[in-house]
Amino acid sequence: MRKIANFASAIDAQNAVLYLLEHGVVARVHIPLGDAQFYRLKPGQMGAMEVHLADEREREVAEALIAEWRALPAVDHGWDEQAEADLSRLDPAITITCAACRAELPRAPGAIDGTCPACAEPYDLLERVVTQHGPEALDACYPEPAPIVPEHVAIPAPVPCPTCSYALADLPVIGRCPECGRDYDKLAIIRAYVLGEGS
Ligand SMILES: [Zn+2]
Ligand SMILES: [Zn+2]
After folding, report:
1. Cα–Cα distance between 15 and 27 in angstroms, integer?
2. 176 alpha carbon – ligand 2 mean position (Å)
3. Which of 49, 87, 94, 160 is the most exposed place for a label (fewest CB within 10 A)?
4. Residues forming beta bridges with residue 52, ordered by sequence position
């Protein structure tokens, strides 16, 4: 466990991670329970989000940065647009039906909930899409994710060498580990970690 902080919403957790990345600390959002994609649906309702550190040695710095971030006035980091699914981008071939009576639900622009025109049962369109077609059906509804970390952040970042865990701070993005002599690619290490592919 490399948990560094808890957040009430996915947006706060993502923004805190972005703040850490901007300051050269590699971290990611960790969802204690549930599908990794589901958090994008209802950011305020998923309970505790955790932020995890790639490298335990950065804990002190990361804690200070998180405290700094919490003290900032709410800033638009550009990530919160991911919170809202744009259902107009949904595959037109997908049908969404009422859970109660199976009538097809209307897909009016901007309307993400309402009551079924056939049986008056309330519905949540995002919930219906995920239930009927899986969270991947919503992939087209979100903007392309921002690049994870720019080079000027990756160079000073003390990411651990994948072979020997040596902290590769202030070394080129692609190079050879001075400790064990193996090749590394910092962007690949960071990408794997932030996307949850690493350990
Ligand atoms: Zn109905
Ligand atoms: Zn190494």
Report:
1. 11
2. 8
3. 94
4. 3, 28
* Stated pTM of the model: 0.43
Position 139 scores a pLDDT of: 76
Q: Residue 10 and residue 165: Cα distance in Å, rounded?
A: 29
Between the CA of 121 and the centroid of ligand 2 the distance, in Å, is: 59
Q: What is the pLDDT of residues 129-149, one digit of tens each?
A: 888 988 778 777 776 555 556
Q: Say yes or no: 77 and 2 in one domain.
A: yes
Domain region containing 36 = 1-82
Domain count, the chain: 3
Counting ligands in written order, the one closest to the CA of 183 is: 2
In the numeric block, the tokens 């070394």 are attached to 171
126, 141, 156: which is the final residue of a domain? Answer: 141
**Residue 1 Cα to ligand 2 middle (Å):** 22
